Amino acid sequence: MADLVVTSVAVDEAAKQLAAIVDEFKNMEKLWEDGAVWGHDTVKRAMDDFVEDWWVKREKLTTNLSDLQKKMEQAAEQWNNLEIELAASFDEQ
Description:
Elements: H1 8-26, H2 29-32, H3 41-92
């Protein structure tokens, strides 16, 4: 079984990617405002029904993703600090 290798680059990148996802969810409303993207009225009404349900789920998901993203940023910061401390301890020896 392969060892898990985690680098500060991977942790930092994960935090950035989560931030981008959160941003997309928060700004989704701009895509739905006028409904013109759907064209036909029947499709627009069906999508409006879907969207009403989606907003509730999106809000909960956005909150959870925001929390996860904040925790990932904290993990990245801690990981980077740990790497610095470990490097310093090797320099001392």
